[in-house]
């Protein structure tokens, strides 16, 4: 399944676009305001980047510059009005960037995404086959981009991997794309693993999703506190590949 990294200001419009795209593609949503936004490209390794330009005039062009400079082979589709596009005109001089004029219907966005992906395949000298549809999806939640990338590398050969950099983002991701299991960092700022698990268990559609905690603290009281939340398991960070895969297979 082709992977799309959807950047934008987190709002109902972005959520609606993400929902439409997820019917045909593997979609990872990332807030443009996130400090780790650019790093998410390394984590997700998308086939296509889609950027909603709503509010983009408030953002630095640094993300566009980095995509253009370091990820020139990844096609980029932006969605915005002529006014919203104006601050990024230099980037559209290359074939990498294309803009859809907003307002635009979701079916037109899907058509444009399909055409960009088909063009990428046609231009590629070697095409990697998509993962089988029955491959399980794992959501990794951690505020550290290096940890996200490390965990992804350990399990990407056997599972589809989606990521979130906070508990609140994890809930948004799960609402749009229900994973088969969550690897959840126990200690995160603002909304920690305990609170995130509470929100998962409080949602009728998500409460049955198995959760494995990842924790960097190895003391009796801390482990006791983790186990009292009744997760499917817990692993000390950094986990070994064998331990991680064994814990996942045991839980799903």
Mean pLDDT score:
85
In the sheet with the most strands, the strands line up as 2-1-3-4-5
Q: What is the correct CATH architecture of the largest domain?
A: 3-Layer(aba) Sandwich
Radius of gyration: 19 Å
**What is the helical fraction, as a range of percent?**
25-40%
Class derived from helix and strand content = alpha/beta
Distance between the termini: 21 Å
CATH class of the largest domain: Alpha Beta
Helix-strand sequence: EHEHEHEHEHEHEHEHEHEH
Query: What spatial form do the alpha-carbon principal axes imply?
Result: elongated
Oligomer: single chain
Strand content: 15-25%
Number of domains: 2
- The CATH fourth-level homologous superfamily of the largest domain: Response regulator
Q: Report the count of strand segments.
A: 10
Ranges where pLDDT stays below 50 over 5 or more residues in a row are 125-131
The main β sheet shows up as:
5 strands, parallel
Q: What's the number of helices?
A: 10
CATH fold name of the largest domain: Rossmann fold
Helix and strand topology:
Blueprint lengths: L2 E6 L3 H10 L4 E6 L7 H6 L3 E5 L9 H9 L5 E5 L1 H4 L11 E5 L4 H18 L13 E5 L3 H11 L4 E5 L2 H10 L4 E5 L7 H10 L8 E5 L4 H8 L5 E4 L4 H11 L1
Parallel strand pairs: 1-2, 1-3, 3-4, 4-5, 6-7, 6-8, 8-9, 9-10
